[in-house]
Each structure stands twice: as C-alpha cells, then as structure tokens.
Amino acid sequence: MSAGKAKASNQTSETSESDSTPTQSDLKEYWRRNLKLIAGLFVIWFIVSFLFGIILAEPLSNVYIGNIPVPFWFAQQGSIIVFVILIFVYARQMNKLDREFGVED
Amino acid sequence: MMLETMLALFAPVIAQLGLGVDAWSLILIVGTVIVYFVVAIATHVTDTDEFYVADRSIPAIVNGAAVAADWMSAASFISLAGLVSFLGYDGTIYLMGWTGGYVVLALLIAPYLRKYGKYTIPDFIGDRYYSDTARGVAALATLFVSLTYIAGQMRGVGIVLSRFLGLDITIGIIVALGLVALIGVIGGMEAITWTQAIQYTVLILAFLIVTAAISLDLTGNPFPQMALVTSDIGARLTQLQADIQMGRYIVPFREYSQLQVFAIALTLMIGTAGLPHVIMRFYTVPSASDARRSAGYALFFISLLYLSAPVLAIFAKFNLIQTLNGESVSTAQNIPWVERWSQTGLLTINDKNGDGVIQMTQSLTSEASEVFIDPDIIVLATPEVAGLAPIVIGLVAAGGLAAALSTADGLLIAMSSAVSHDIYYKIFNEEASQRKRLLVARIVILAAAVVAAYLGINPPGFVAEVVAIAFGLAAASLFPPILLGIFDRRMNREGAITGLLVGLIFTLVMVVLMRANVVLGFEEPLLDSFLGLGALGIGLYGSILNFAVALIISRFTPAPPDDVIELVEEIRYPRGSREAIAADGGSETTSDD
Fold first, then answer.
1. What would the pLDDT profile of B258-289 be if each residue is shown by its tens digit?
2. What is d(CA B101, CA B299) in angstroms, rounded to the nearest whole number?
3. Chain A residues with CB-CB distance to B580 below 8 A
4. The pTM is what?
5. Residues 222-241 of B with CB under 8 A from A
C-alpha cells in the first residue's frame, strides 16, 4: 500500500500526480485490465475442459497421448492440471497489476 | 520412492505387532480423532471474530488445505473413484466438475468477498442488496444447500464406521456427529480450520499410499498420476470389459448424453462457486491477495486426489473383475474382503445360473451380473482386493472418516452462522450481546448436528448423487446474486431476490419431481428429464433462469442506492483488505441500513 505508485510503469500517461491514491480513471483502467485477464483465462478454461474433454470427445477419439485418447486424458486429468496453473497465473498477474496501480493490500 | 521407504519402514513394525485390519483401523481411527480433539481444545474460542472467521489469521496455504478437506467429502474420498469406475469416460462430470469451479471461485468471487470482509455469504447478499429479505433468503438457501450436502456425508461416516469398527450404522453416525459438533462448539471456525488442515493430511496420505501401492503392483510405476498415460492399463481394462460385454471403458457418453455431461460438469463447477461452506472459508485469510493464492493452494491440494482418482478407478475395476470373474463361487465367498463387505450388504454374490462360477457382465450394479457392488465401497475395498498391508487399510478407514468429518464440520459452521449470525442477530435481535450470540451459535451447531444425524440415518440415495444435487441448488440460488453483486453495479434488490427465489424453487421442484421415487416414496420419478437434463444437471437451467430473471427485473426497477454502488466499487480493489474490516465481531457498533 505504501509507495504503490512508484512502479506505475506503462501507466504514466494516465496516472495522477498525487502519489498514494489512484484516480477514478486509474481504477477504471485497473478494472478493465482485470476483466481482460479474467476473460482470457476463462477462454483457456473452456478449451481444456469443455472443448477438448466433451465437445471434441468423439472427433478426437483416435488421437492418442501415450496410451489413451487425448479427449479422455483432458476429461480425466489434463483439464485439472491446467485449472491449477490458471489460478496461480491469475494470482501472480493480479499481484503485479495491484502494484502497478497502487491498490495492493 | 516415498512409498517404498514407507513400506520398508512399516513392514517390520507390522510383522512385530501382528495386528490385523480391525486392530489397525481402530488404532488409526481413534488416534486421529483424539488429535482433532486436542486441536479443538487448544484453539477454543471466545469471541465471534474467532468463532466465525478464525480472527482472519489463517495463512493462505493452511486455508488451502482446510478448503481442500472441507471440499473433499466422503463423496470425493469414498465415492469419487467408485463413480468414475462405473461411469468410465463420463466420470469426467465429477473430475472436471468438482475442480473447474475453483477457477470460477478464484477469479470471480473469493478475492472480492474477502475484500468485503464480514462473516457469511448472507452478510454479503444482505448488504449488497440492502435488504433483510435478501439476507434471510440467502440464509435459508445456505441452510438448504448445506443440509442436502451433509446428508451425503453422514452415509460415508456410517459406511466407514460400520465396516471398520463393526458399529451399527446408526450408532456410528451419532457418535461421529457428536464428535464433529463438539469440535465446532468448542473451537468454532478456528478449531475447524486447523483440524481440517490435519484431516487433509490424513486423507491425502491414505489415498495416495493406496493408489501408489496398487499402481506399483499393476503397472510397475509408483506414480499413479502418470500411469494413465504411460501404462497400458486403460487399454487392458477396456479389453477386459469388452470381453464380458461391460462396454468399452474409454468410450465417451455411454452413461450420459453429451449434453448431460456438459451440463452436469458446468453445474458442478458453478455450484462449487456458490457453496456457502466453501466460500466462507475465504473470509479467514488475512487479505484479498491471500484469498486468490489460497484458492490456488486449495485446488492444488485437491488435484493431488483428483488426478489419482481416475487411475485408481481403473485399477480398482480391473482388479475386481480379474479377481472375481470366472472364480468359483465358494472360493470367492471365502475371500476375507468379500466376506466382510457381504456383511454390510454393499457387495452381493448371487450365482444366478447355478453353475458354481461367477459371471460378471454389463456393469457392476446391473441385474444381469452375478456380482453386485455398491460404488461407495470401491475405494474402501480396493486395498484389500489388492492385498495391501493391514495398516494401509486402516489408514484408508481413517482417511475416509477424516474426509467425512472435515466436510461435516464445515457444513455445521455454515449452518450455524446462517442461523445465529444472519437470522438471529442481524434480522431479529441486533441488540444481542457477544456472549449471547456465541451461545446461540453453539446451540445451533448442536441442533444442526441432530438434523444431520436424522438425514444420515435415513439417507436419500448415493453419497455422491445427493451431494451433486446440493450443487445444483447452490448453482441456481446463491451463485448468481453473488456474481452479479460483484460484477453488475446496476443489479438491485428486486432483481437479485426474485432471481434467487425463482432459481431455487425451480431447481427444487425439478429435483423433487425427478427423484420422487426417493424423496416422496413414489414408485417412479414423476418426471424423467427436462429439456434433456436430469436431476444432476438441472441446476444449470435453474442458474440461467436466476441470471435472466435478475437481469430483466433489475432493469425495470430502481437502481441501488449510492452507498451500495460505493460498496461495489470498493470491493473491486484489494487495497485496505487487511485493516478495513467492519468489525461487528469485536464491538457492538456496526449495523447496516
């Protein structure tokens, strides 16, 4: 929370002069980028689970990874591995974003 | 590696003691229960902040483990691998469905609720929708979802205790719930969190040791998570099943249609993000960024079991078919585990054609097969089927119990806070003193335990199936108003309450109609499916209905007041989540509207 603004790297054009409170437009931009990040991660979430595991289950049933079909792997294991990664990526990116806009806790 | 060392370590001990399965089960079950109690007494709580949110002092990683234990119920531990084993490819609905929701939770809900930072989910809904009606409805939905969920847990407890300690299922349930309720009464959320973290350790060790041992045995690879891809076990089982007309294991959509698989998986995911006992755990971490990280740890811990379960499912089925199919009935009936599980009525051998040899066919639960196996015993019986050491089997019993107890505990406190905090304190008696509120919270835990015991003794169906219906209810009731409360500034009281009620009632009515044979005692369900979805997936329609009604109504009714819009703005930024807590626990000052 202290010196949050110090790292406002590519935000310089929009950031305010006062150094501890982000302006309204800063906060708007922060929220917009948060939404963008969320949307991107949910696209991946959908692809590995619903697309690979369910929608393409039959068309891809002859494509194998190791000893099992690719859709089967995504349906039973692959999607879960990606889910874990997605959350940690989100946590990391958001921490960065928080610092950039000086809204970290 | 770890496994071999463990076995090497334990083997001489076991040989020396010469203890059997029952003795080890007893030692491990009683031993772990004593540990849970010591923790509860050590962390006994004295104020509402400690009681409801563990003083917001729980480190992200510990909360992650607690969420994992809270989350992984008897359904996950006992039934998951069994269900996947029976469903084959379609088991993905549980594997994907019960993990993917954490992404929804971490990205869309947990950090914002933590920033909001009070005690319960109805708290948020009540404040965000500036209405005690909203608070009350949310509290009722919490009670509803949690009760449905806990009913499933109790059967798991009953199975473990009856099989491993020889207790009558009814007595087992009463004893277990008594224990759980006491832990909650003494230590509130604080004790529950720490015992859950320990329970996670017990249950995951049990699950991994068993799976690794079987994996080593069947594939030569001690890492079961890998065995699916690297070994040919999937292909072997598929072949074995094809030989006895059981259908090919890895072929999708044998049990459910593609639409159903899609809908059930999605329902379970958004239901996860609407389950009060899970979401409220994120109030216990120190800050909003901890809430995000904590969700990551939670899913990581959960994934250790969920990546092993599909492999165990294959191993278990392979072992079962290989051991029993073609065996002579008299030999089979003398196998110790067959004998023990037969006594519980969860495994039956019936030589229908009278040739003295077992023929398995179609499925393990079908009428045609000469062996009937309840999916719930797959995990518990597998170590015995694979011939593992008695101590491992005892450990599985302790693990299954840990899974059921930890979830029951989380549910009891969710119900207790809904009644004592949201309904009693916030709606009926805002003057209540700290002491009085704690007293009420504790009494409600006991009362909830009594209701749960009743539901456990008169169980409404398969563990996982009952639990899955709770997800539909959560998805259709609490998830939409929480999500809209964060992301839709314009969402107002009228929209949210109508949406919640419509979603909840629709789903409830549908489930009752589709399960009329179980719930109302009819011969047949009154309704088979609705627009292609059965009871498990119907929550998706309920949820969509909830969103649609809320959005439409809100646009035709007055916008929320300015201070509520400020609240929505405020929770979007993590800054200040450490200190800016409306402390209505410590003092008696705060009141909303």
1. 999 999 999 999 999 999 999 999 999 999 99
2. 9
3. none
4. 0.90
5. 225, 228-235
